[in-house]
Design brief:
heterodimer; A: Pyruvate-ferredoxin Oxidoreductase, domain 3; 18 helices; B: alpha/beta; Rossmann fold; eight-stranded mixed sheet; 10 helices; binds thiamine diphosphate; binds iron/sulfur cluster; binds magnesium ion; PFOR_II (chain A); oxidoreductase activity, acting on the aldehyde or oxo group of donors (chain A)
Chain lengths: 578, 288
């Protein structure tokens, strides 16, 4: 019996690849397996090759796999494009309709199932995905009832007749292939999972959930890949909690609307990807200058310009840190796991209010869209901290005085009142201003106000600003990374450790202000530092060089072809260094 | 109850003497008092321009944001706390050039915000360049040979975008302007009030006298029915947009706040934020 397996389904976009993957993985999740998904898709809605890959394991996994065990193909193109990934002895389940062939040189077993024919016989070719997934499920020897339950949930809304037909399609697919194969394939028999259902979601959903837990009740946003799922999730949920999502005319409206709503006292977020973030830059400066809390999610994708909108990249970091003219206090956090997507939203909203600054949560496409198992999320640990928000009645103001919204304080954070509050009237402006918010060009005031605002940067450290995954004093190589790559590195590290090679690994989560003091000891101890990132210029490596030093120890390990790092690539690179 | 004096602060406007914006400031202060507001119940959100400074000259909550974005900020404020009265304001460049996209969509969205544009047909703050409201042939620093682009008609655009309240007024007519702002505040939905507010320093063509000569007050047409959209469009076209008064009002269409599912009467900012264990578990159940 095996402890893990990779399954992939591919076809033309719009052909049911997504729904098949959904049902298949839901059923696996019910059985208690750990799952990690990867979507290959393009910006087209219909047509164009697309595939979804799921890695199934009895142990926690947080990375895509190097190879593939089972490929379900709706067309020959899927086989041609993906068969190379199959490990020797892998299996292809394909529609007999197109007379599938395995490319030369690839050792794989082919099961040609009359997928379309069976579906059409049952009434509609739309059900071919059910035939196909039934066939591949049966080959794994997994219980069909669990699968049927997932089918029922997917189609329940459409009535019992539809459910019944789909269940029949699954059964026919299963029967056909089992007869062909002479029963389930022994070599693909998975060890039973622990039977406890995990949470199974994409990073964008975890962030939406985190936002609700954080007390976010409004979102203003403009659709973009790979951020849209956040607004789509929140528009389904926020009305239940009195809030809503506004789809704005552009990202400038999205971010300024969020600023207005935060100013008026509701935790409000926006989310976008690179192109949208570029449009938001001026407004981020307004948030910093007026000390208005703001939370923005940037789901990084391939840039520049429209770039590779459906592909993995981590290339916005410079823009997020340095973007907006002038100098403002600002926080950039990059969650590295699905759980962190949830908790970082909570912390992001807290930090935004405690320090009265813009906070950018930067994910990457794989983290935002890769569907994966998630450890239980703990609502009890969620604390909402609104910082120096004044809620008690205020004393009457002296004549012609306003509330000192920008009062000079020890920590640079001033008391904040919300519109509507008696005796709290003050002015808010992006023009340099005095303690009451009145425009001021005085040089003394200017310097003090700049210092007041920038001073807030000194003390900001989010939880696990730098996450230490492995410290072994005997290791010579240290890998430093950010975002979704951590699971891949951990997997490579485990393989290297089997070869007797120890590697250290830290994840930088707080990108700005840079937690140099937390990184320095690790760099100091290492002989070689490999900074691994999905961009072409080594943005994280440069941040380290700029803030910490150790230029001669640092090596770049870059990948910017639109695909995530594979464990084998990291393994190989580290092996060569040792 | 607050009088208009309570909406004054002691900040001296940096506008040129004679600038039309002084009257707009006074009209907002009077209208706010007349409708029975207390200063803390009003939020004035303004853009960037000479006109944009207005939020700093009224004793109320005020936010002076970035160029062209007064409307999305104001809509954010209203979404967050619908118990507040929200006025957005700015110049013709702010609202009809850089912010035009927001203007059209704020009209469509129909949140209960009153938008007051100080339309001086020029860019005042940047010292005299052409605006989308400048007449063809209008000579400015940026159009030394005269503007060769057509003049934008915000009133027509507002009507075609589905506006529920469209009015126009003139700085010299404080009475009409105040009354229209009051109506705008009371209107349940988005209201656009375009105000001819002369720039005495950079616009030597569209002066107070020029407006007095050229505008038509709708009061002259007792039979005019502001609930008729076609008539409104005709009147705007007939008068080349030089009319003042309440041009159009749709009292039937509901505001965004009233249409949004789950939105309560109480301002969101005044509601509780925490999530119960039970609600959280329900949310989690969907991911199993
Ligand atoms: C993004 C941006 N671009 C340009 C400017 C410069 N700017 C400030 S106000 C203004 C135009 C002002 O004209 P208007 O909106 O009509 O206001 P007025 O001064 O006439 O009241 C311009 C171009 C700016 N502040 N921000
Ligand atoms: S420049 Fe024109 S618009 Fe600006 S304050 Fe002076 S008169 Fe008013
Ligand atoms: Mg102007």
């Amino acid at each position: 019996m095996i402890s893990q397996l990779s399954w992939k389904i591919g076809g033309q976009q719009g052909e049911g690849v997504e729904s098949t993957d959904r049902i298949f993985s839901t059923a696996l999740n019910r059985l208690g397996y750990y799952l990690y998904g990867y979507r290959h898709f393009s910006s087209r809605i219909k047509g164009g090759h697309t595939n979804n890959k799921i890695r199934i394991s009895t142990n926690p996994i947080r990375a895509i796999s190097d190879d593939l065990d089972i490929l379900v193909a709706f067309d020959q193109e899927t086989i041609d494009l993906n068969a190379g990934e199959l490990r020797p002895g892998g299996v292809v389940v394909a529609d007999a309709k197109f007379s599938p062939v395995i490319p030369e040189g690839i050792q794989a077993r082919l099961f040609a199932v009359p997928i379309t024919a069976i579906a059409e016989e049952l009434g509609t070719s739309l059900m071919k995905n059910m035939v196909a997934s039934g066939a591949s499920w049966a080959l794994l020897g997994l219980p069909l009832e669990v699968f049927n339950k997932a089918v029922e949930e997917e189609f329940g809304r459409k009535g019992p007749a539809i459910v019944e037909k789909n269940v029949e399609a699954v059964k026919r697919g299963a029967e056909f292939v089992l007869e062909q194969a002479g029963g389930p394939l022994e070599e693909f028999k998975l060890e039973p999972a622990d039977g406890t259902q995990k949470l199974f979601m994409i990073g964008n959903e975890a962030m939406g959930l985190g936002a609700i837990a954080a007390g976010c009740r409004l979102m203003s946003a403009y659709p973009i890949t790979p951020a849209s799922e956040i607004m789509e999730y929140l528009i389904k949920k926020l009305p239940k909690f009195g809030g809503t999502v506004v789809q704005t005319e552009d990202e400038i409206a999205a971010v300024t609307m969020a600023i207005g709503a935060n100013y008026a006292g509701v935790r409000t977020m926006t989310a976008s990807a690179g192109p949208g973030l570029s449009l938001m830059m001026e407004a981020i400066g307004l948030s910093g200058m007026t000390e208005t809390p703001l939370v923005i999610v940037d789901t990084q994708r391939g840039g520049p310009s429209t770039g590779l909108p459906t592909k993995q990249e981590q290339s916005d970091i410079n823009a997020l840190i340095y973007g907006t003219h002038g100098e403002i206090p600002k926080v950039v956090v990059a969650p590295s796991t699905i759980e962190e997507c949830f908790y970082d939203m909570v912390e992001g909203f807290n930090v935004a209010e405690e320090y009265q600054v813009p906070v950018i949560i930067a994910t990457d496409l794989q983290l935002s869209l890769g569907k994966q198992s998630c450890e239980p999320l703990d609502i009890e640990s969620v604390r909402i901290n609104r910082g120096k928000l004044v809620t008690e009645e205020l004393p009457q103001l002296e004549e012609h005085r306003m509330f000192k919204r920008y009062e000079f304080t020890e920590d640079g954070v001033s008391p904040r009142v919300l519109p509507g509050m008696k005796n709290g009237i003050h002015h808010v402006t992006g023009v340099e201003h005095d303690q009451e918010g009145r425009p001021s060009e005085s040089s003394i005031n200017r310097q003090k106000m700049m210092d007041k605002r920038m001073q807030k940067m000194d003390s900001i450290r989010v939880k696990d600003a730098v996450k230490v995954n492995a410290v072994d004093p005997s290791a010579e190589v240290l890998i430093v990374a950010m975002g979704s790559t951590g699971g891949t590195i951990e997997e490579a590290r485990a393989r290297l450790s089997k070869d007797g090679i120890a590697i250290n690994h830290i994840t930088v989560r707080q990108m700005h202000p840079f937690p140099s003091e937390l990184i320095e000891p690790h760099l100091k101890a290492a002989k070689t530092v490999v900074v691994l990132e999905n961009n072409a210029t080594g943005q994280l490596a440069n941040l380290i060089k700029q803030n910490v030093g150790y230029h001669d120890k640092i090596r770049n390990f870059l990948k910017y072809d639109g695909t995530p790092f594979l464990p084998s690539e990291v393994y190989k690179a580290c092996k060569e260094l040792n | 109850m607050a009088t208009f004096k309570e909406f004054r602060n002691n900040i001296k406007p940096n506008w040129c003497p004679g600038c039309g914006d002084f009257s707009v400031q006074a009209a907002i202060q009077r209208a706010a008092a007349n409708v029975g507001l207390e200063p803390e119940q009003l939020a004035v959100i303004s853009g960037i321009g000479c006109s944009g400074r207005i939020s700093g000259y009224i004793n109320a909550y005020g936010l002076h944001g970035i160029h062209g974005r007064a409307l999305p900020i104001a809509q954010g404020v209203k979404l967050a706390n619908r118990e507040l009265t929200v006025i957005a304001s700015g110049g013709d460049g702010d609202g009809f050039a850089i912010g035009m996209g927001h203007t059209v969509h704020a009209i469509r969205r129909n949140l209960d915000v009153t938008y007051i544009v100080m339309d001086n047909q020029i860019y005042g703050l940047t010292k005299g360049q052409t605006s989308p409201r400048s007449a063809e042939g209008f000579k400015t620093k940026s159009t030394p040979e005269g503007s060769i682009e057509s003049t934008l008609s915000p009133l027509e655009i507002a009507l075609s975008a589905g506006a529920t309240f469209v009015a126009q007024s003139f700085s010299s007519d404080l009475k009409q302007l105040t009354a229209l702002i009051e109506e705008g505040i009371k209107h349940k939905g988005f209201s656009l009030i375009n105000v001819f507010s002369p720039c005495v320093t950079f616009n030597k063509v569209n002066t107070y006298d020029w407006f007095k000569e050229n505008i038509v007050n709708l009061e002259q047409f007792p039979e005019y029915d502001p609930s008729n959209r076609v008539a409104a469009m005709n009147k705007i076209m007939e008068t080349h947009g030089m009319l003042t008064g309440l041009i159009y009002q749709d009292k039937v269409r509901k505001s965004y706040e009233d249409l949004a599912v789950g939105f309560k009467e109480q301002g969101l900012a005044n509601q509780k934020l925490d999530l119960s264990r039970e609600d959280f578990d329900k949310l989690l159940a969907e991911f199993k």
